[in-house]
Design goal:
By secondary structure, the protein is α+β, with helices and mostly antiparallel strands. It contains 16 helices and 19 strands. About 2% of the residues have low confidence.
C-alpha cells in the first residue's frame, strides 16, 4: 500500500468513527459565513473583540498540550485559529486535535491579536463541514505564505483542483484571467457592441486556416465540424443589419500542443460596420490599456520572456504610448533578415532567399508562406513594445481586402507585444466575387497538400451577395493575451482545465 493509500485508509476510518457517533461531516447544507480572512485582517480595528463566523480549509496545525494554533484558508487568504482546551472542553478539543490537514471547517469565534501580534480568531465553536480523505501537497512552507504544491507539472494541470488549493500563485493567475475577460466585455459593451453567440457545430469550419475536429450528429446523420473561428457567422450578422457585434467563445483546432498552443482555446472576435483597419487599430490600443489596467493596475507592466538563446529577460511594456508602431511585414524582413522586398516576388527567388538565411524551402509552395515564415523567424523576436505588423501577403490572408495600390498585399494587421502575436485584424472582404476567387485559390492549396487551407463556404458567399457594409474585424486569443499580461510561462497556466492525454 502506498503512503497516500495508507493515509486515505486512516481518514476513512476516522469518517466511519464520526458517523458512528452521529456526526456526518457531509450532512450540512449550508454554513452562515459572516466574514472572510482578508476582511478580518483589513478591518481588525473595528472587528477586535467581535464574534465572527468563518469557513475554510484547515492548512496547518501546531502546538501541544491545552493550546493549539491552526491556519484556516478561504478564498481570500489565511487566518489563524486559537483553540484552547479550557474554552472548548475536553471532548471537543480532542476532536479538534484529531482533524486532518485539508478538512473543511466552519468556525465561530472572537477576533483578537495574540501576544506575538498575529490577528487571530479565538475559537468558541467549530463544525466539520467536509472530511478531506486525501493528503494535500501542503508543507510547512504554506505557513509562511508560500506553497510548492504539486511538483509534477502534468499532475498540476490534471488535478487542477489540488493545484489551486496548494498554489496561491496559480489561483491568482487564473483570477487575473477572469478580470481580463470582464474588462474586455465592459470595454466593448461601453462602446456599443452587442455580445452574441454563434454555432459551435458547423457544416464548414471557416474563418481561419486550421484543421477542425469532426463529430457525428446521430439524429441528422451528418458529420459536423467544431468551429475553428467565430468569423463567418459574425459577418453574417453584419449582413443582417447589426453594426457592432462581438463574441467571446471556445474554438477548437486539431493541431499540436505547446506552451503557446492548446487545441481548445478562448477567442474574442468583433466586427464593426462602416470602419476600416486604422479604426480597429485605435480600438485595439484603447482596449489593451483597459485590459492591462484590469490585470496589473496600470497600463504598464514588466514582461518576462526567454530569448532564442534561453536567457530570461525583463522589459517594461507600456500600452499607453500611442500611437503604437506600424511596421510593414516586408520592411521588417528587410531590416532583420537582410532580404529585400524584390527578392520575395516570385516563388523561385523567395525560395532562394529562404535557403540563403538557412531555412529549408522544399515544403514551401507559396511566396506568401515564405514571407510569413521569414517574419516569424527574424522580425517577431524584436517586437517587444506594442507593434502593428501590416501588409500581409495575399496567399495567407483569404478574408482580407487587397491593398488598392498593391494587389499582392492585404489590408491586414497583427499586433505584437513582448515578441508574442496578440491579435489579428482585417479590413474585411465584402466583394463576393473577390471572396469566391480567394476560396478557389485556397482549394488549389488544399489540393497541393495544405491540410489547413480555408474551405469553400457557399452559404457565406450567398450572404455576401446580399451586401455587407465596409467592415473592420478583429480576433484575439484570450489565453495568449492572459499569458503575456500575467507572465505565465505556459498557456496551460491560464486555462482552468487544459486538454490532456487521458490517464492510463
Amino acid at each position: 500500500m502506498s503512503e497516500e493509500q495508507d493515509i486515505r485508509a486512516q481518514r476513512l476510518a476516522k469518517l466511519d468513527a464520526l458517523r458512528a457517533e452521529g456526526r456526518d461531516p457531509y450532512a450540512h447544507e449550508k454554513f452562515p459565513v459572516t466574514h472572510h480572512a482578508r476582511q478580518i485582517h483589513d478591518d481588525f480595528d473595528s472587528l477586535e473583540n467581535q464574534t465572527v463566523t468563518i469557513a475554510g480549509r484547515l492548512t496547518s496545525m501546531r502546538g501541544k498540550g491545552k493550546v493549539t494554533f491552526a491556519d484556516l484558508r478561504d478564498e481570500t487568504g489565511r487566518i489563524q485559529l486559537f483553540v484552547k482546551f479550557d474554552e472548548l472542553g475536553e471532548a471537543e478539543y480532542a476532536r479538534f486535535k484529531d482533524l486532518d490537514i485539508g478538512d473543511i471547517l466552519g468556525v465561530r469565534g472572537v477576533v483578537f491579536r495574540t501576544n506575538t501580534g498575529e490577528v487571530s480568531v479565538r475559537v468558541q465553536e467549530y463544525v466539520l463541514l467536509a472530511k478531506c480523505l486525501r493528503p494535500l501537497p501542503i508543507g510547512k512552507e504554506y505557513e509562511g505564505g508560500h506553497a510548492y504544491g504539486l511538483t509534477d507539472v502534468e499532475q498540476r494541470y490534471r488535478m487542477r483542483y489540488v493545484d489551486l488549493l496548494a498554489t496561491p500563485d496559480a489561483r491568482e493567475i487564473l483570477k487575473q484571467r477572469s478580470l481580463l475577460v470582464q474588462a474586455i466585455r465592459r470595454f466593448l459593451d461601453d462602446k456599443g457592441f452587442l455580445e452574441v453567440e454563434t454555432p459551435v457545430l458547423q457544416v464548414e469550419a471557416g474563418g481561419a486556416t486550421a484543421r477542425p475536429f469532426k463529430t457525428h450528429h446521430n439524429a441528422l446523420d451528418y458529420d459536423f465540424k467544431l468551429r475553428i473561428s467565430l468569423e463567418l457567422f459574425l459577418k453574417r450578422l453584419i449582413v443582417g443589419g447589426f453594426d457592432k457585434v462581438y463574441e467571446i467563445g471556445r474554438v477548437f483546432r486539431n493541431e499540436g500542443v505547446s506552451t503557446r498552443h492548446n487545441p481548445e482555446f478562448t477567442l474574442l472576435e468583433l466586427y464593426q460596420a462602416w470602419v476600416n483597419l486604422e479604426d480597429i487599430m485605435d480600438l485595439v490600443e484603447e482596449m489593451y490599456v483597459a485590459a492591462c489596467v484590469a490585470v496589473n493596475g496600470s497600463p504598464k507592466f514588466i514582461a518576462r520572456r526567454r530569448t532564442a538563446e534561453g536567457e530570461l529577460v525583463e522589459e517594461e511594456i507600456d500600452f499607453s504610448q500611442r500611437p503604437w508602431t506600424r511596421l510593414s511585414m516586408l520592411d521588417g524582413i528587410q531590416r532583420y533578415a537582410g532580404i529585400a522586398p524584390e527578392e520575395l516576388t516570385t516563388l523561385a527567388s523567395a525560395k532562394a532567399a529562404l535557403e540563403r538565411v538557412g531555412i529549408p524551402s522544399e515544403r514551401e509552395h507559396t511566396v506568401g508562406g515564405i514571407i510569413e515564415k521569414l517574419h516569424e523567424r527574424f522580425t517577431q523576436p524584436h517586437l517587444i513594445q506594442p507593434t502593428f505588423i501590416v501588409d500581409f501577403p495575399l496567399e495567407t490572408s483569404p478574408l482580407a481586402k487587397k491593398r488598392p495600390d498593391n494587389p499582392n498585399l492585404t489590408r491586414r494587421f497583427e499586433v505584437y507585444v513582448a515578441a508574442q502575436e496578440l491579435g489579428n485584424a482585417f479590413s474585411e472582404i465584402n466583394d463576393p466575387i473577390d471572396q469566391r476567387e480567394r476560396f478557389d485559390n485556397q482549394l488549389v492549396q488544399k489540393a497541393a497538400g495544405d491540410e489547413e487551407a480555408h474551405p469553400m463556404d457557399e452559404d457565406f458567399l450567398r450572404a455576401l451577395e446580399y451586401g455587407m457594409p465596409p467592415t473592420g474585424g478583429l480576433g484575439i486569443g484570450i489565453d495568449r493575451l492572459a499569458m503575456v499580461l500575467t507572465n505565465a510561462p505556459s498557456i496551460r497556466d491560464v486555462i482552468l482545465f487544459p486538454l490532456l492525454r487521458p490517464e492510463k
